[in-house]
Specification:
The protein is α/β, with parallel strands linked by helices. The protein is built from eleven helices and seven strands. The chain has a seven-stranded parallel β-sheet with strand order 1-2-7-6-3-4-5, with helices on both faces. Helix 8 (216-221) links the parallel strand 3 and strand 4 (228-235). Helix 2 packs parallel to helix 11, helix 9 (261-279) runs parallel beside helix 10 and helix 10 runs parallel beside helix 11. It is globular and about 50 Å long. One of its GO terms (cellular component) is histone deacetylase complex. Keywords: Chromatin regulator, Hydrolase, Nucleus, Repressor, Transcription, Transcription regulation. Belongs to the histone deacetylase family.
Length: 359
């Protein structure tokens, strides 16, 4: 269904301030965070229907499954892991002030131009679409998902359960001043900064990025941050090939095209163990892209669904055994079968008692 702009609504959301202020870079005063309450009684899964990108079918011009989060959620409900919408967390839309904790005002202003958004979303026809449509139908869902990453991290840290999963987010190609690769907001950098400012003693954050692509966005943002250790395991023959950003990676695991389960899981076990022992983190951000699946048109690796399920189990088990809070973000995945694989993996984590309190 196409979205229609009301005749009376001509202003686009997310306006920022004056041209002079745009030159000043990101705000340095932390913004007020979401007031969504964290409770041990809720399942720490974060989702709301507004995550879905729907725009007159234009979303189909990019291989990304714009309905992936909703499809996973329906599968989890069908399996009984989630019984009602009240069991989980629904984020509010992230505010402009929150975005400016990391993003430059100039970058946020640039998203008012459909040409710029079309480049980020990799959907050329968006150039010709009024920006208010683009804001409502593409950027607003991404703002909800970005807020979901922050809320999921809070839930993992504050609920006492030690884990949370956002059924979206993982926009690892976006930095403070540049979007790309379908990633318009830097949710990973925002999550890092929120955790560091939380007052909860989060001093060493390990980012485990297992998306098939290098996470160049947050790597650029966190280049000189000694409180963050980046382990990035990716196909080095594909986008983005960002050699400058690579300098931020403390443990780079470069894979050749068509790497299979055996090699992939062996390298993961070894390098994850080394990263944990070396850095001794007290929080893990797990970017769990499923574009590693065999047949994915962009990832070009040969990991089976069983391999992805085992991969997620390795990461969650490593965190649980060390009592390290972990937040999982979905990131990339360009096969329609990705939603089923992710849902099966979450159910496997429950069945293996790796999701405390989920029966």
């Amino acid at each position: 269904m196409c979205l229609r702009l009301d005749h009376g609504g001509t202003e686009c959301p997310m306006d920022s301030s004056s041209d002079e202020e745009q030159e000043n870079g990101p705000a340095h005063v932390p913004a007020a965070r979401s007031v969504v309450a964290v409770s041990r009684e809720r399942i720490p899964i974060v989702y709301r229907p507004e995550y879905g990108v729907q725009f007159c079918g234009l979303q189909k011009l990019h291989p990304f499954d714009a309905a992936k989060g909703g499809n996973i959620y329906r599968l989890l409900k069908a399996n009984g892991l989630v019984r009602s919408d009240e069991d989980i967390y629904a984020p509010d839309e992230i505010t402009l002030d929150e975005l400016l904790d990391v993003h430059t005002k100039r970058y946020i202003e640039s998203l008012k131009w459909s040409l710029n958004v079309a480049k980020i979303a990799e959907i050329p026809p968006l150039i010709f679409v009024p920006n208010c449509f683009v804001q409502r139908s593409y950027l607003r869902p991404m703002r909800y998902q970005t807020a979901g990453s922050l809320l999921a991290a809070r839930a993992a840290l504050e609920s006492g359960l030690g884990w949370a999963i956002n059924l979206g987010g993982g926009f690892h190609h976006c930095s403070a001043d540049r979007g790309g690769g379908f990633c318009p907001y830097a949710d990973i950098t925002l999550t890092v900064r929120m955790l560091q400012a939380s007052g909860k003693g989060v001093e060493r954050i390990l980012i485990v990025d297992l998306d098939a692509h290098q996470g160049n966005g947050y790597e650029r943002d966190l280049m000189d941050d000694g409180g963050v250790f980046i382990m990035d395991m990716y196909n080095y023959h594909i986008y983005p090939r960002d050699h400058s950003a690579k300098l931020a990676i403390r443990r780079a695991v470069e894979l050749k095209p068509h790497t299979d389960d055996e090699e992939y899981l062996r390298k993961l076990r070894k390098c994850l163990h080394q990263s944990l022992e070396e850095f001794q983190p007290n929080f893990i951000i797990y970017n769990a892209g499923t574009d590693v699946l065999k047949g994915d048109p962009l990832g070009l690796l040969d990991i089976t669904p069983e391999g992805v399920i085992e991969r997620d189990e390795i990461v969650f088990r490593s965190a649980l055994e060390r009592s390290i809070p972990l937040v999982m973000l979905l990131s990339g995945g360009y096969l329609r079968s990705s939603a089923r694989v992710i849902a099966d993996s979450i159910i496997n984590l429950r069945d293996k008692a790796l999701l405390p309190t989920v029966e």
